[in-house]
């Protein structure tokens, strides 16, 4: 049995209690709540991941890549520089625990209230409720991570704070019930994923900032 994120326990316990109370009197409804309880447990699963130790940028979330291209960064004070945006859509069956894509210092966090459009749409990056995180790597490069609420998701959880040092692959939050995560990298970074690709949070390599040949060496070994 796998462990679940702490944010899921309250939903799981409430659903399980309702199941126990209803089942002796209304079996069909009880079965529905039992299935719901099992799904909640499944949705909030928090598996261990094996993060590469090299200086790769790894995926901050599980899901499917829906966009790769140049765009302005998500904070207004950085609009003069183009970044490469990688958008990852998380459906209701993906692991929703988010992970740090690269080690560094959290210099700014900005929460923006907004709409709850389908997170698979690119305009959700601009219109939806979201949490923007600015991470400065040790070499001075800035990386933006944006947690975006979707059509079903109504709460974004972020467990990190400004001026906090973070390590690549560590958990930093969760978005509940369907969502999107946008990753903005400097435009000189070589992107190693493409639209339509399935990625795994904490494991899939998004970019190799230092030297593309390191990927080949890792594969051969």
Characteristic terms for this protein:
single chain, 221 residues, alpha+beta, Glucose Permease (Domain IIA), 2 domains, eight-stranded antiparallel β-sheet, three-stranded antiparallel β-sheet, 4 helices, elongated
Short description:
The protein has 221 residues and is of the alpha+beta class. It is built from four helices and 13 strands.
The separation of the N and C termini measures 32 Å
Question: In which range does the helix fraction lie?
Answer: 10-25%
CATH level 1 class label of the largest domain: Mainly Beta
- Reading the helices and strands in chain order gives HHEEEEEHEEEEEEEEH
CATH topology of the largest domain: Glucose Permease (Domain IIA)
| Major beta sheet summary | 8 strands, antiparallel
Number of helices: 4
Would you identify the regions where 5 or more consecutive residues have pLDDT less than 50?
212-221
| Tally of distinct domains | 2
Class based on secondary structure composition and strand pairing: alpha+beta
Share of β-strand residues = 25-35%
Q: Overall pLDDT, averaged?
A: 86
Number of strands: 13
């Amino acid at each position: 049995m796998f462990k679940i994120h702490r944010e899921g326990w309250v939903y799981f316990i409430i659903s399980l209690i309702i199941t126990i109370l209803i089942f002796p009197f209304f079996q069909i409804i009880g079965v529905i709540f039992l299935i719901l309880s099992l799904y909640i447990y499944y949705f909030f699963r928090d598996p261990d991941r094996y993060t590469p130790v090299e200086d790769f940028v790894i995926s901050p979330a599980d899901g499917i890549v829906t966009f790769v291209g140049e765009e302005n960064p998500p904070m207004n004070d950085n609009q003069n520089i183009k970044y490469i945006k990688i958008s990852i859509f998380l459906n209701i069956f993906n692991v929703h625990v988010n992970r740090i894509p690269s080690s560094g210092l959290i210099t700014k966090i900005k929460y923006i209230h907004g709409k709850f459009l389908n997170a698979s749409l690119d305009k959700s990056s601009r219109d939806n409720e979201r949490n923007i995180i600015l991470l400065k790597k040790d070499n001075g490069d800035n990386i933006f991570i944006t947690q975006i609420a979707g059509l079903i998701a109504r709460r974004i959880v972020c467990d990190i704070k400004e001026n906090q040092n973070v390590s690549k692959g560590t958990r930093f939050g969760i978005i509940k019930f369907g969502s999107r995560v946008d990753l903005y990298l400097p435009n000189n970074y070589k992107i190693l994923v493409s639209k339509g690709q399935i990625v795994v949070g904490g494991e899939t390599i998004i970019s190799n900032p230092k030297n593309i040949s390191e990927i080949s060496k890792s594969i051969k070994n």
